[in-house]
Amino acid sequence: MTKSPHPDLDEAFIARQHDRLVKLRQQLTTSADATAVEGGEVQEAAGDEPMDGGDDGDRLEQLANEEALLAHGEQRLADIDRALQKIREHTYGLSDGNGKPIARAHLEAVPEALYTTEELRAQEKHS
Predict the structure, then answer these.
(1) Domain assignment present for 3
(2) Is residue 120 classed as helix, strand or coil in its secondary structure?
């Protein structure tokens, strides 16, 4: 393995992060599959049953929540894939935005982090 350009990340840390990312990816994929199945079951359960407006509202809210979870999961999977790519490219821990090192503590908390906390704060202010 080539030395990381990040000053605070050693090979052992990056190897542990790789393992964490692979496990997270598997968990999210399994969870997304289960959520998609549940969403299909909710739609099937509606079938031809007569329901009142409250039931329809509850069902629509549940579907909207499941769609939001799936979208969040898809984004997180994309971030995990990008982080794994960065490990292969020996750029893990460097921001995709400004190229600066992402704090080790931030990477420990969010192994798929692609931006520094400062960049994330700036993005939130502009949202």
Answers:
(1) no
(2) helix
